[in-house]
Amino acid sequence: MGRVALVTGGSRGIGAAIAKKLKEDGCDVAATYGGNDEAAAAFTAETGIKTYKWSVGDYEACKAGVAQIEADLGPVDILVNNAGITRDAPFHRMTPEQWHQVIDTNLTGVFNMTHNVWGGMRERKFGRIVTISSINGQKGQFAQANYSASKAGDIGFTKSLAQEGARAGITVNIVAPGYINTEMMSTIPEKVMNEVILPQIPVGRLGEAEEIARCVAFLASDDAGFVTGSTLSANGGQYLT
Ligand code: NDP
């Protein structure tokens, strides 16, 4: 039996690539999603990975969802906090709703999920928590005060938990992607992509979801036991920390 891995937002984009990679590496994988049943069904049909629907922003739903996955697959060894949203607006036009939606999903969602696997990992003296932050949590971004705050918050959360988990065999790390070729990017006009975004990326291209998945797979592996509290930037050289 492989490790049991739970990937939030694992039905599409980067999360789907992570779920597939962990399965390839021998894990028993569960993927969650927020509401897009069609994408989740297509993902399960393609990969055989079962999907579970609830909002990571809802603590009680996370508790029930984790319990269901543990009943189906066994105790969660690896949690990948990947679910995330954007609600961009320049700050003078950002609504409290846009602020709260993003914080609730991207930051409180990470608390909700991690809190519901943490006790079991402590008891079993093994755990891997990998959270997907963003380059924009490291450097800030125009019209993303909510998103950048949430993703920077994930980094602080991770550094604190790394200290708390160390003696219990739990590592806690961040992968911080730059611009990745997913649906989140498809809304960007071609002119902006070619004239503004690509020139900022020294390697001259967007990243691929599979490249992020390979970073996550390393941090989630048994081999990465000495790596904790770290932020692995995967951004084509766009922002050097
Ligand atoms: P996508 O929009 O392609 O997929 C998002 C996934 O998260 C979907 O499975 C979605 O479910 C799920 N999700 C959204 N909200 C919730 C919620 N409240 N509860 C549970 N699941 C939810 O995103 P990406 O693959 O582009 O991004 C994945 C992560 O990577 C995010 O955290 C994002 O911030 C981060 N990131 C992405 C970058 C990029 O260039 N794409 C760059 C840097 C970071 P459903 O399908 O049901 O909506």
From TrEMBL:
GO terms for biological process: monocarboxylic acid metabolic process; poly-hydroxybutyrate biosynthetic process. Keywords: Oxidoreductase. Gene3D superfamilies: NAD(P)-binding Rossmann-like Domain (3.40.50.720). It comes from the Bacteria. It is an enzyme of class 1 (oxidoreductase). GO terms for cellular component: cytoplasm. Transmembrane segments: none annotated. Its EC number is 1.1.1.36. Residues 3-183 form the Ketoreductase domain. GO terms for molecular function: acetoacetyl-CoA reductase activity. Belongs to the short-chain dehydrogenases/reductases (SDR) family. This is Acetoacetyl-CoA reductase. It comes from Harenicola maris.
